[in-house]
From TrEMBL:
One Gene Ontology term of the molecular function aspect: DNA-deoxyinosine glycosylase activity
Organism for this UniProt entry: Blastococcus saxobsidens
Keywords: 4Fe-4S, DNA damage, DNA repair, Hydrolase, Iron, Iron-sulfur, Membrane, Metal-binding, Transmembrane, Transmembrane helix
Coiled coil (UniProt feature): none
Superkingdom of this protein's organism: Bacteria
Protein name: Type-5 uracil-DNA glycosylase
Keyword 4Fe-4S appears in the UniProt entry: yes
Transmembrane intervals: 173-196
Every Uracil-DNA glycosylase-like domain range: 70-245
SUPFAM superfamilies the UniProt entry points to: Uracil-DNA glycosylase-like (SSF52141)
One of the GO BP terms on file: base-excision repair
Family: Belongs to the uracil-DNA glycosylase (UDG) superfamily. Type 5 (UDGb) family.
InterPro entries: UDG_Type-4/5, UdgB-like, Uracil-DNA_glycosylase-like, Uracil-DNA_glycosylase-like_sf
Amino acid sequence: MTARDAGGFPVTRTPAGVVRSARSTPDLAVLDTRISGCYACPRLVAWREEVARVKRASFREEDYWGRPVPGLGPADARIAVVGLAPAAHGGNRTGRVFTGDRSGDWIFAALWRAGLANQPTSTHLGDGLELTDVRVAAAVRCAPPANAPTPEERDTCSPWLARELELLPRLRVVVVLGGFGWTALWPVLAAAGYALPRPRPVFGHGVEVALEGPRGPLTLLGSYHVSQQNTFTGRLTESMLDAVLSRATELAAPGG
């Protein structure tokens, strides 16, 4: 019988266990539950649970999720958006990726403008948000201290992302938010059988890389992350993000 935690999620406690659990996942719904029961990175587990216990003063009446945060979006998505990791008082609080923080305000508003979301805001579970033709996920599924996962934590978490992308049979474009996600994605794609260029393309906003793999062509698009240090300073503007997502929808369209 599979061990389960207090929330009823099947528990994974080691990097090897992540590999086994991810590889055997039959669909996105099961993947989401398995991700939610992951305890493979002790530092991240301690931090996410500490944040959920102490809470931010403005959210002290709320029950924090305090777990790994699964992806969001339909299995027939042609576009994937890959970020860094959940925010301590965003996804780690709400239980939904990019939901309830300033970064989420930016990405979901942009998805709405691109016709990929039914509303421009994402504040909490049950708020009515629905995505069309896009799946949003993170390279690391737990909120990290100082928003900085270690390379080891990135690698431990990578089988979850690898399997998530494999479970999107119509996937044609991956929009990568930030350099950390860009670096995290290459071994995932290599394991999936994509022929990768050498040397590896350097991350940058608007960088476009065309790949060929076992399921046909896949295009990577780079975008500066929707973090406040980029959006508040003007390094990333709405028009810059809109241009990347417009290119993504163009490439993902049938015959694109």
